[in-house]
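Record format v2
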Amino acid sequence: MKLTTKGRYGLKAMFDLALNSNGEPIKLNAIGERQGISVNYLEQLISPLRKAGLVKSVRGAQGGYILAKPASEITVRDILVTLEGPIVPVDCVSEDDDENLCTHSDCCVSRIIYEKIRDSINEVVASITLQDMIDDHKQINATNIQVNCKN
Amino acid sequence: MKLTTKGRYGLKAMFDLALNSNGEPIKLNAIGERQGISVNYLEQLISPLRKAGLVKSVRGAQGGYILAKPASEITVRDILVTLEGPIVPVDCVSEDDDENLCTHSDCCVSRIIYEKIRDSINEVVASITLQDMIDDHKQINATNIQVNCKN
DNA sequence: ATTAATCTTGACAAAATTACTCGGACATAT
DNA sequence: ATATGTCCGAGTAATTTTGTCAAGATTAAT
Ligand code: FES
Ligand code: FES
């Protein structure tokens, strides 16, 4: 039941992008330095985020990335689902994916539990936006840009 | 954010044990056949469950396992924590384990999210007991013993 | 036009974790 | 004694994670 570095670093990167956005595109280099993530790895994370329509890229010199939508319209769930796939404790309760369904799913007592876990997690992460994180950050600490957090 | 087979099979096994308990000890062999889990692997799962005080073993011929407590006093959380460790999305929010704490945990916006995820999952699984699963099962299907569910 | 900066893509690989299997020791009912 | 179970630790194949790397495409600045 752990998130992988994809989800965690991706969330950090998106938060960094939201926090430092001033109209100009932000380089992966800058994000990587602030958040302690290698640019090489960031490239791998930002690509699906772009394809999911969460960020826009500006190519060429002085290029970079900007949020594709207001921070208040990007949820933590959007980011995690993009980078980790459906947020489910077992594959057979993923809504998208009928392929992993079990044969006796209609009379499975475990399934009831897994659906509850799935729903509770998804409710939490869908209720938090990048703007919420920014608000939290401003309230907690005006200067620090969370560099020494590994996750 | 997936459970491993340890947690899933362990839950199945404990449910099987609770459902089929009639005072006599139940062999891993029987559980394995009903739930489609190899006895070899089951041995590995039942061992920590015994050490955690959730089941009692009866060694020797005609031996087996019985629940150490009433089904109504064993939660899904007990089982999952025993087999998977602390239920947390990232190590730094595990209560037991101060070792994985981040250096700036006091001003980390991600942490707030991870704590919420942690709490919501733990609330769900702590609120469900083996007895609840049995009740669900009896209501859904009186005969079937969920054999073809992989999880 | 050239150059330098930056994104884009796909391949590759080391490390860690998962998901088991196996062999043998031990305990007990018959 | 023997058959039937649990108990324990080692070992291992497969998978996933966590990155690195190189070559190419695009564009701003000069
Ligand atoms: S575990 Fe998939 S439905 Fe039972
Ligand atoms: S991620 Fe561990 S506290 Fe910030």
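Chain A touches chain B through 48 residues (CB under 8 Å).
Chain A has six helices and two strands.
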